[in-house]
Design goal:
By secondary structure, the protein is of the alpha/beta class. It folds into 3 domains: 172 residues, 3-Layer(aba) Sandwich (Rossmann fold), CATH 3.40.50.1010; 69 residues, 5' to 3' exonuclease, C-terminal subdomain (DNA polymerase, domain 1), CATH 1.10.150; 141 residues, Lyase, Ornithine Decarboxylase, Chain A, domain 1. It is built from 15 helices and 16 strands. It has a 6-stranded mixed β-sheet, with helices on both faces. The chain has a 6-stranded mixed β-sheet with strand order 9-14-7-8-10-13, with no helix packed on it. Strands 11-12 form a two-stranded antiparallel sheet. The radius of gyration is 26 Å and the shape is elongated. The two termini are 44 Å apart.
Length: 408
């Protein structure tokens, strides 16, 4: 079975790391990098534990406009200015995280947790499992049998994130995850500027929701409440409480472009080594494959980095430059990061003619960005691996006759 998707609330992690680690951690230019280092370590720890198939770092504004329109006081009490030493780290963070091979998702209109929730829903609908790494307990609402919240405590002292499942949410709050937005609306959340119903704490909020089933049910039956102060608090703040809930419980419909983390990292190209050439001590060891830019275009376009491995156990390793069948046209599968003109050998088992070579991170990029029939090369077949391991042919390899038909 493929590993889970790990989606990370990047701003939340950057702030936590910034305040958790000393600013004496600096880069070559003498400027603090504590937030970058701390966040990378947090994510790498979860990668080691959960072995995700893909990682996406989500960025967005501190307060989405649709939420402030619903409730103007939302995040109003938060400090507006970012600390001076954190601002340049934030600016550098997207490129920094992308250098790890992680996907970086950014929205100008939606908060990072909006992206996390939407991506998790898409992953679950596709039959996968998602891990949501966050420091915001609001995200407990997303916990399902296919979505686990990885809650990072402030001052966690290196223990890693807590895994929060639906059962854990019920144990903590006494309500299912779906009622977390209703629960927060009643109880309030000072960190988000949400006051809640006056005098209602966690225990009372959970009690009301268990009895009435939803915030609407609590408000509709408020007049029956035997405690006068609670009855007054509920009946006198109906509209505000619903607005609080809606800023947490709104379902977003986010279009995900072809080639994003959902499928980009799920597929591989399986190629065959057709030639091996060693140009000497001052040169390179080249391995030519029967697949390349005609299947995975991004390396030769802008130096994208794809995982690549030779399926050969127990063989000595070597530094290898992999090229495709159109190598005379710059068909390089292992260019330098961001520079398709430069070569960057990979340390792999020394290839031999006939070896199978696997190029990862190739899912949607093959179907959406392939240079089909370049140099009259036939289009490769596509195979889908079902969750039960069964392989299903989606498209047969193109015949030369079909290529010629298109060129006439």
């Amino acid at each position: 079975m493929p590993g889970p998707l790990l989606a990370v609330d990047a701003p939340s992690m950057l702030f936590r790391a910034f305040y958790a680690l000393p600013d004496s951690i600096v880069g070559p230019d003498g400027r603090p990098v504590n937030a970058l280092l701390g966040t990378a370590n947090l994510v790498l720890r979860e990668i080691e534990v959960h072995e995700p198939r893909a990682v996406v770092l989500c960025f967005g504004p501190d307060a989405a406009s649709y939420r402030t329109e619903l409730y103007p006081a939302y995040h109003a009490e938060r400090e507006a200015a970012m600390p001076d030493d954190l601002s340049p780290q934030f600016a550098a963070s997207r490129d920094f995280f992308a250098a790890f091979g992680w996907t970086v998702a950014t929205s100008e209109d939606l908060e990072a947790d909006d992206l996390l929730g939407t991506y998790a829903k898409r992953e679950a609908e596709a039959g996968g499992h998602a891990l949501l790494m966050t420091g915001d307990r609001d995200m407990y609402q997303c916990a399902t049998d296919r979505v686990t919240v990885l809650y990072v405590k402030t001052g966690g002292k290196g223990k890693g994130a807590e895994e929060v499942t639906p059962d854990e949410v019920e144990e903590r709050y006494g309500i299912p995850p779906a009622l977390v937005p209703d629960f927060i609306a009643l109880r309030g959340d000072p960190s988000d500027g949400i006051p809640g119903a006056k005098g209602v704490g966690e225990k009372t909020a959970a009690e009301l929701l268990r009895k009435q089933g939803s915030l609407e049910g609590v408000l509709e039956n408020a007049f029956r409440e035997s405690r006068p102060a609670l009855r007054t608090a509920l009946t006198g703040s109906r509209d505000e409480l619903l607005a609080f809930r809606d800023r947490d419980g709104r379902e977003l419909h986010l279009e995900i472009e072809p080639g994003t983390y959902l499928v980009a990292n799920a597929g591989v190209v399986v190629a065959t080594c057709v030639d091996v050439v060693d140009t000497g001590r001052a040169g390179y060891l080249f391995a030519k494959l029967d697949a390349g830019m005609t299947e995975v275009t991004r390396p030769s376009l802008y130096g994208a980095q794809h995982p690549i491995d030779v399926l050969a156990e127990g063989r000595p390793e070597a530094d290898v430059v992999f090229v495709g069948p159109c190598c005379e046209s710059g068909d390089v599968l292992t260019p330098a990061p961001g520079d398709p003109e430069a070569l960057a050998p990979r340390r792999v088992a020394r290839p031999q003619v006939g070896d199978l070579v696997v190029v990862g991170g190739a899912g949607a990029y093959c179907a959406a960005m392939a240079t089909i029939n370049y140099n009259s090369y036939p289009q490769a077949p596509e195979i889908l691996r079902e969750p039960d391991g069964e392989l299903r042919l989606l498209r047969r390899r193109q015949r030369l006759e079909q290529v010629w038909e298109n060129e006439i």
